[in-house]
Amino acid sequence: MINEDKQSNFFPIFFVGLTxxxxxxxxxxxxxxxxxAVSPNYFRIVMGWDFENIWIASIAQGIFEGxxxxxxxSLIFTTGxxxxxxxxxxxxxxxxxxxxxxxxxxxxWTIGGILAMLLASISPEFYNSHFYDVPKEKTEMLKYAWVGxxxxxxxIGGLLSAVFGVVVIKNNxxxxxxx
Length: 179
Known about the structure:
Blueprint: H1 10-38, H2 40-47, H3 54-84, H4 91-122, H5 124-130, H6 138-178
């Protein structure tokens, strides 16, 4: 139970904000580490990259974009955390909630990749006509579909988790303060 007389503390809120930002970079690195290994061709086509070490560049791109999304997510999550807990929430409490959100993002990333591969498998003609410069060879098309779908899934997961994160904080903060 949280002591109602406890003063609001800036440091947990500050560290929650930083953690959210760096978590975005970490998720971007991990997901693009996998995506760059699955289909470097996707990055050649979509990003227009024509050089060696596309895998390394894809990881750097993931970190960069992940940090940007992390900043946006951090603004929403940290603001919600501070307001809902009235500045009295602990860093440990926030990390518990953040771990649930990470699972949502990674689940959406996986689901997006699987759905895109299913679409490309079921209707390659539709997939080719609606997505940019899709490889014609079946295996390469499926790899390309995985990467594109997983990226979209991760972005949708990030959006959902921003909203879900605030709801989770609110519900769990109430539960924690009832005990």
